[in-house]
Design brief:
The chain has helices at about 25-35, 50-55, 55-65, 145-155, 170-180, 185-200, 210-215, 225-230, 235-245, 260-265, 270-275; strands at about 10-15, 20, 40-45, 70, 80, 90, 95-100, 110-115, 125, 130, 135, 160-165, 205-210. The longest helix has 15 residues, at about 185-200. By secondary structure, the protein is an alpha/beta fold. The protein has a single domain, classed as Metallo-beta-lactamase, Chain A, CATH 3.60.15. A hairpin with a 4-residue loop joins strand 1 and strand 2. One of its GO terms (molecular function) is metal ion binding.
């Protein structure tokens, strides 16, 4: 857990002690963990170019000569390998499939990770496309794109896939999910659990894809209560209406102008907040 509510991840190949970072936002914290775990950082997988996911790339590239930086967007700092949808990478026994999910940004990439012949469930690093109980904002894309992302690309992964997302938005997402489906008992239970985790300052990630289909309204577009809430039946229109409702859900009374809100969402004020 870094910055205000971000997650970055370090994946360790146990036999070689090589490591791969996902969304290296805070180099200092990452270096502490690398030293503690006694591993060698070989690569960074960046989901998208926003500051709060990619700002550590340049510093780490200087510290680790030969560091490979993967991503799908030329705006990603220190990018060495531009990847495409379906491309597979290998780090020792760790296998990675790149899944292109444009919408939050036009160059957003998720990373599906597994080991052959492993009893462990595979992992999805979903950045700001899929959250526990929610999905990302449509900054540079459309409802049609997000529908494809959620139904055809991420939604078809194995149901036991663990979902490691880019932010701790779970409580807010599930409050909205409860507004959408007030009778959904799974939403109520998950929200109570998430609130307790939040009170204890513990993460709510990972969830599993199977769980997400039970309480995440953005994966429940064909369910009658979700369609009733939006007043739509076409899945793309249901998704469009849901995202609009979520964007306006419990807005603070004093709102920044849209440009300032966008700057906050993109993490552009981070350097000034950190100095404080």
């Amino acid at each position: 857990s870094v910055l205000e509510d971000n997650y970055m991840y370090l994946v360790i190949e146990e036999s070689t002690r090589d490591a791969v970072a996902v969304d290296a936002a805070v180099p200092k914290r990452l270096l502490e963990i690398i030293r503690k775990e006694d591993v060698v950082l070989r690569a960074i997988l960046t989901t998208h170019h926003h500051w709060d996911h990619a700002r550590g790339n340049e510093e780490l590239a200087q510290l680790f000569p030969g560091l490979q930086v993967f991503g799908a967007d030329e705006r990603i700092g220190a990018l060495t390998h531009k990847v495409t949808h379906g491309q597979e990478l290998t780090f020792g026994a760790i296998r990675v499939r790149c899944l292109f999910t444009p919408c939050h940004t036009s160059g957003h990439m998720c990373y599906f990770m597994w080991e052959d012949d492993s009893p462990d469930a595979p992992a999805l690093f979903s950045g700001d496309t899929l959250f526990v109980g929610g999905c990302g904002q449509f900054f540079e894309g459309t409802a049609e794109q997000m529908h494809t992302n959620l139904t055809q690309i991420l939604g078809t992964l194995p149901k036991d896939t663990k979902v490691f997302c880019g932010h701790e938005y779970t409580v807010r997402n599930l409050k909205f999910a409860l507004k959408v489906e007030p009778e959904n008992e799974v939403v109520k239970e998950k929200l109570a659990w998430a609130r307790q985790r939040d009170d204890e300052d513990l993460p709510t990630v990972p969830s599993t894809l199977q769980e997400e289909f039970l309480y995440n309204p953005f994966l429940r577009l064909t369910e009658e209560p979700v369609q009733r809430f939006t007043g739509r039946t076409d899945p793309v229109e249901v998704l469009r209406a849901l995202r609009s409702e979520r964007d306006n859900f419990k807005k603070p009374k004093e709102r920044l102008n849209p440009q300032a809100m966008l700057a906050f969402d993109w993490g552009l004020f981070g350097p000034f907040l950190e100095k404080k």
